[in-house]
Write a structure and sequence with these properties.
Number of strands: 18
Helix content: under 10%
Number of helices: 4
Largest sheet: 14 strands, antiparallel, barrel
Length: 356
């Protein structure tokens, strides 16, 4: 009976929303891509300028000078969930660029025990099957330089596909918009507005499967979940600057303010919005080797004695760039800050301009 209850709870948790906005919806689109950015605690909105800009701030795509390809894979929850990312970007001319990316976050081979017990009450393990739950995000990006020197803008069109085996599935659509500006003193500023259209998901539920699960648990009387889900907008503000020393050495410092228009346990939280800062640093040598560090995800955590304590997430990373091939690694150690496990993330970026 526990298996029936778990799947029924999955239905209700993932789908029900009654056409209301939710604090957390389509969260797989907020995990982040590119180990270089993750190593800096995602404080990259102002200075991103490669194929990964389609995710972080599409305005940065105007800095792409030739075709670029990016790949990333990471695992979560002791390899139970897998996160995969693929992106491609190309310049259209000296003023504009295009990009496309695909994200998949899924859990595969989940045991479906809803048919384990037949109508006569007999247990038959041959009736156990498996299913997958997966979220897909396909993003099309366009960026263009504006007449004002140093000012660029970009826009994303997102298609969201979410699947829970043959129990339920949904389609969604939304838009993002971003701006970047670089001053004559080399300070960079960025704004990224995610889900500016309040990304809308429409769910289709297999009512026969739902009824079979609901009827299998004695005393349960849950209603069929609503079939719409709305993701509220988020705003990210960033600034950064890079310094060069003796021609071979560089140092980049960046800061982000990440805003959600809902109250949660972020370090700055009001009924109107919650704000979470992030800081990132990168030390580079001849554009070949990079060391990165960052801190973010500041949270007010309630302790057992009802007091609050501020937690945070440190990040570290390294990168190597040689003849158009860049390999980056990010390490997240939040062992003392939460119960989460260590995370190791690798990503690859290829700039085809070096192969021509």
């Amino acid at each position: 009976m526990k298996s029936y209850a778990v799947i029924l709870l999955t239905f209700i948790t993932l789908i029900s929303s009654a056409q209301a906005t939710r604090k957390y919806s389509n969260e797989f689109m907020n995990i982040g891509v590119d180990a270089a950015a993750l190593g800096m605690s995602n404080a990259v909105v102002s200075q991103t300028g490669d194929v990964n800009s389609g995710y972080w701030n599409p305005a940065g795509l105007v800095h792409v000078e030739d075709n670029q390809l990016a790949l990333m894979h990471s695992s979560y929850f002791a390899n139970i969930a897998n996160y995969n990312y693929l992106a491609f970007a190309m310049p259209l001319d000296t003023q504009s660029a295009l990009g496309v990316s695909l994200i998949r976050f899924g859990v595969d081979d989940i045991l479906d025990t809803t048919q384990l017990i037949d109508d006569q009450g007999n247990i038959n393990y041959d009736r156990i099957s498996t299913f997958s739950t997966a979220d897909y995000g396909l993003t099309f990006s366009y960026a263009r330089k504006l007449p004002l020197d140093g000012l660029n803008f970009g826009i994303n069109a997102k298609i969201i596909r979410r699947i829970i085996g043959d129990f339920a599935s949904s389609w969604g659509f939304g838009l993002d918009a971003g701006i970047q500006f670089e001053s004559k003193t080399n300070w960079k500023f960025g704004i990224m507005a995610r889900d500016i259209t309040t990304t809308y998901n429409a769910w289709s539920i297999n009512e026969d499967r739902f009824e079979a699960i609901r009827g299998a648990v004695e005393g349960e009387n849950q209603d069929l979940p609503e079939t719409t889900e709305i993701t509220i907008p988020k705003l990210e503000l960033g600034m950064s600057k890079r310094w060069l020393f003796r021609y071979d050495y560089s140092f980049l410092a960046a800061a982000n303010l990440n805003m959600r228009f809902a109250q949660n346990n972020d370090i700055i939280s009001t009924s109107f919005a919650s704000i979470n800062p992030a800081l990132g640093f990168e030390f580079g040598y001849t554009g070949l080797v990079f060391l990165r560090a960052g801190v973010g995800n500041f949270q007010n955590e309630l302790q057992i004695d009802n007091s609050e304590q501020v937690s945070f997430q440190p990040n570290f990373g390294v990168g190597f760039n040689y003849k158009g091939i860049q390999i980056d690694y990010a390490f997240t150690d939040i062992g003392d800050q939460s119960a989460a496990l260590y995370s190791n993330v690798f990503s690859l970026k290829i700039d085809f301009g070096f192969f021509r």
